[in-house]
Amino acid sequence: MERHKVQHNINTDETVIKINGLYKSFGELDVLKGVDLTVHRGENIAVLGKSGSGKSVLIKTLVGLLKPDKGEIMVLGKQVNKLHRKELDELRLRIGFSFQNSALYDSMNVYQNLAFPLTMNVKNLSKKEVNNAVEEALDAVGLKDKIKELPADLSGGQRKRIGIARTLILNPEIMLYDEPTAGLDPITSTEINDLIVEVQQRYKTSSVIITHDLTCAKNTCDRIAMLVEGEFLKVGKFEEVLNLDNKQVKEFFNYNFI
Ligand code: ADP
Ligand code: MG
């Protein structure tokens, strides 16, 4: 099923993420062992790899939630690990991070869930400005009619959309999605994958998408990167990575195509 092909002009001169020789261990466990990655403005990159391979660890280092043991991470022109607290907070406002299990606030309705990060981070907004921003973000995810609902009254796919809307409210330049379709049925997953493309086109974001969904990797993403034993063997087009002569890569694709 090929519903969307990404169409955009990539300014290959402009790098929004550059990771060089990234290492990260937890005690005896060496998770990342020399990861390199360059993401250009407007690109969608899929990160694949089996569970526990370090995908979440990798994107957490991008926003300074985890400190690498070694290596350089440049995001939007800033060296993430050299930033002071305030500078890091400012950088994070330019990055939308859709966490693996990003929960909405159950006691708040959709409007409040979206308005909260906005009013926390941007001072002196008028009520009208907040309302407009909430409506715009809800429009982007196709759920304007759910503005007064509580999270408990939404489906899994709708909650995911509201979670994405909540990150869009700050108009991010980069989106990081950690398994956005985990736990969703195939149809809802396809809808979320389509939404990622729509968001990318509407907000002109660059995205790193951790996913096990090969349709997403193939159709939503410009290039894919597979974490194998703490490294990306190659960051390239879907077919280039699919055809790599590597036992673990072959196993991964064989298993996931069944
Ligand atoms: P995945 O590819 O499934 O997202 P993760 O990046 O979450 O994998 O984790 C990679 C490995 O690092 C796992 O073995 C995990 O248990 C370990 N790990 C992740 N975060 C921590 C942490 N904060 N402390 C100790 N170990 C961690
Ligand atoms: Mg993970």
From TrEMBL:
Alphabetic keyword roster: ATP-binding, Nucleotide-binding, Transport
GO MF: ATP binding; ATP hydrolysis activity
Domain of life: Bacteria
ABC transporter domain residues: 17-254
Keyword Transcription in annotation: no
Pfam families, per the entry: ABC_tran
Protein name as catalogued: ATP-binding cassette domain-containing protein
Organism: Flavobacterium shii
